[in-house]
Specification:
Blueprint: H1 3-9, E1 12-16, H2 20-31, E2 35-40, E3 55-56, H3 68-78, E4 84-86, H4 91-103, H5 107-121, H6 124-134, E5 146-150, H7 155-167, E6 172-175, H8 177-183, E7 193-197, E8 201-202, H9 206-219, E9 223-226, E10 231-234, E11 239-242, E12 247-250, E13 252-255, H10 261-267, E14 275-285, E15 296-298, E16 303-307, E17 311-320, H11 330-339, E18 361-368, E19 375-378, E20 385-389, H12 395-410
Parallel strand pairs: 1-2, 1-13, 2-9, 4-17, 5-15, 13-20
Antiparallel strand pairs: 3-8, 5-7, 6-7, 10-11, 11-12, 14-17, 14-18, 15-16, 16-17, 19-20
Helix pairs in contact: 2-9, 2-12, 6-12
Amino acid sequence: MDISNKNSQKKSIAVVGAGIIGVNCALALQSQGFNVTLIDQQGIGEQCSKNNAGHFATEQVFPLADPSLLWQLPKMLLNPLGPISLSLSYFPKAISWFAQFFNNMRYKYQHKNTLALKALNKNAINYYIPLLNEANAQHLLTSNGSLFVFEKTSLNKIKNIYQHYKSEGIAVELLNKQQLHQLEPNLHNNINYALYFTEVAHTGNPYQLSLALAQLAKDKGMLFKQFSVKSITHTRNSVLLSDNSQELTFDKLVIATGAWSKDICKQLGYSLPIEAERGYSMDLINTGAELLSRPVASAERKFIITPMTKTLRLAGTVEYAGLHAKANYKRASMLYKNAQFILNKLPIENNENSDNAEPNKWMGSRPSLPDSLPVICQAPNQNNIFFALGHQHLGLTQGAITGKLISQLVMQQPTDIDIKPYCISRFN
């Protein structure tokens, strides 16, 4: 270890945001010898990292801004079981975001953004393996692929989708009805074909995975502080965080605040076109035989079913209603109705107060940027502030590699991949 590294490792670093991204950043930095404090106004992993689908979706290399979505949108919005909901009262606030989203449908942006997603996803799971081994949490990663299933889509169209993935180097097989039912016998007879992504993974408990990695960081010396950051004051050599009654001072700061990042970035002089893309999940207690052994995503219904440690988790849907609107748990209840077309046997839904919050229903706000790329960079105008945010549907997938990249940036080392596409300067 050289002297410059020894000096840098004595510095104090705050990581604000204790989701899977912030936890991985804190762990990577603590492992390099920094004095790290992980900060969140709630607990560790209490937002999107808690009840998400648990899918390490390295196959998802295509940005969500796809021209084919344009003709599908009206049907999706009108379908009561549809995957997208848009609050009319909130829409005026989101017009700018949607304008940028539609602009990213242009081929030159699609191609560039696909390459950037591929770079992050290619080895994303491999970055987790040594961390989970060190945390004695290997059991939280299951690597037996996932299925993308089709009910009514024509075989020709499915073959085109298959070739689209193959052309980007994704490990995928096209299965017919007999093959996929051999793989997952509980699939409904409605399912005719599937794409089998053989190199992806899932976790049976994403919340416990966040806690296990946070505990590993604590064992190395990381501190966790429950603290609501209201303002940030930056100087050349320090960063001061305030909750209006108490102040904390650090040498460096990593901002990993997900969907809550817009105001923080604005304080620092940066525009961030981020939207809270609200997703829902429902847990069904699995008391009988194994009903599923890997995640199954529906191509037409656009949701996913993942086998968890003691439950089946139904997850998905997209709701644009802002950060503060009351959760609409009908969005969670409808997942059960859709799941009846995907699996033959399902655990029984708890129908009491089915549209209200219950322990088995959940809503979280994904941090979505219009180009589907996260922000991973050193702040262009502050040498001791770093960003790790905006991972949309791929926070769990990209958590470990993001932590590694942030630690390399802080250490002023070459990064494992080119991070230029993820700089916040693309919005400023």
